[in-house]
Amino acid sequence: MLPINLLKTSTFRLAVLYLGLFAASAIMLLAYVYWNTAGFLVRQTDEAVQAEITGLAEQYAQGGLPLLVHTVIQRSRDPGQSLYLVLDSAGQVLAGNLDVRPSVAPGADGWMDFIYSRRALEGVELKAARARAFYLPEGFYLLVGRDVQERREIESLITSALVWAIALTLALGLIGGLFMSRNMLARVDEINKSSQDIMEGDLSRRLPIAGTGDELDQLGKNLNAMLDQIEALMIGMRQVTDNVAHDLRSPLNRLRNRLEVTLLQESSPEEYRQVLERTIAEADNLLTTFNALLMIARAEAGSLRESMTNIDPAAIVRDAAELYEPVAEENGLGIHLNVQEGLQVRGNRELLSQVLTNLIDNAIKHGKPETASGDIPTIDISVLQERNGRVCFTVADHGSGIPKHERARVLERFVRLETSRNTPGSGLGLSLASAVARLHGGRIDFEDNQPGLKVTLTLPSAVR
Ligand SMILES: Nc1ncnc2c1ncn2[C@@H]1O[C@H](COP(=O)(O)OP(=O)(O)O)[C@@H](O)[C@H]1O
Ligand SMILES: [Mg+2]
Predict the structure, then answer these.
(1) Ligand 1 touching residue 411 (CB < 6 A)
(2) What tens digit of pLDDT does each residue of 167-179 get?
(3) Burial environment of residue 199 by CB neighbours within 10 A (0 to 12, 13 to 18, 19 or more)
(4) 20 φψ region: left (φ > 0), alpha (ψ -120 to 50), beta (else)
(5) Which of 84, 149, 222, 426 qualifies as a cystine partner to 289, CB 3.0-4.6 A?
(6) Residue nearest to atom 23 of ligand 1 (CA)
(7) Distance of alpha carbon 88 from its chain centroid, rounded?
(8) What would the pLDDT profile of 188-245 be if each residue is shown by its tens digit?
């Protein structure tokens, strides 16, 4: 991994930005602390010197020069950090613990900072000092001050500690930033690699999830959900193409062959007419199948979700029942309705109507009672709201029903049970019902109607 990439990551930039801000505020804080402590030390020194000057001034006022010189001599015996020097007009040292008068001029505030030498065990020591000087009458000179060597050393100790602290902070922050960005970059790299694989056609691949639950994980999860969706759509598309290839091609071939055979032999106009009529009927069948396939594909694509409106389920059920009443009658069946008024579902009217007509059509085609009884057998159609707000459409008949182990299978495309071989149909009715239920976030369930089949389409309630 090139370091240049590392420096370009947003994590690293953020880390550096934070580091800069943090360092700036730390420096400001430390500077404040430094100036405060150093300032305090200076003030303390100055105050001590000032107190000493006041004391000596009192002595001078009481006993004049002799008492002042006497006091300085006394104090110089045990001076501590204090420095004294008294010179006469000739520059001779009269008293004090300094050897010579410092050669620096006092500053504007009257204070002098200078270096003085002191004999120590190993030769001569140079030390820093701070003092004030006064000229007394008769050309006498008085200097009162304090050794500040120790203070200076403490100051420089604090300074170097602060510099080190700041340098360490910067170094650690920089290393931390690099480390974090490297981690980040490694994960982004993994995501890049996975998406490359996916783009190259491995649609089953998914982006890695680190399990930390951070925004990268969230992004990965969302992208994975999107990939799931895309994969499902692709599979659906492939199925439709396969279906079209297998289940529409053979009937088309058959149709074509029959027409060809008819053309090969001389026939009467009446025979031709019959063949043409059969061809039209078969073409109609093909068209119906084709439309059903397209409808299933549309329902499965999920793009219809935007076009959903609020629908009165009672109206759909009544319309479908009305449409099928004559056909049911023809087949010796009655239709019995039980609709709850004032309900609402959110959905696609066209698809829901188609599903209901499919279910009623099935009940008429496949749900005829095997043994005739006295009364007219009925198809019971109902729409009711459950207590949890979901709306259930039910179509129940008294036919042979669907055995339990076949119930999942009949939802697949083109699946027709052996018992239904002699009824017309393409095996797509329940597939559409299932696809539409999924599109609406609902489900299809089969129950035994004892005897017969009870199909329920459950939709989530429109008002959440
Ligand atoms: N009410 C029913 N009673 C018994 N069997 C049924 C019923 N509805 C559907 N089936 C079975 O499920 C199969 C699939 O139904 P469907 O997908 O609607 O296809 P089609 O009606 O075109 O045969 C039917 O062929 C039939 O065998
Ligand atoms: Mg059907």
Answers:
(1) no
(2) 888 888 888 888 8
(3) exposed
(4) alpha
(5) 426
(6) 427
(7) 86
(8) 888 889 989 988 988 888 988 888 888 888 999 999 999 998 888 888 788 778 877 8
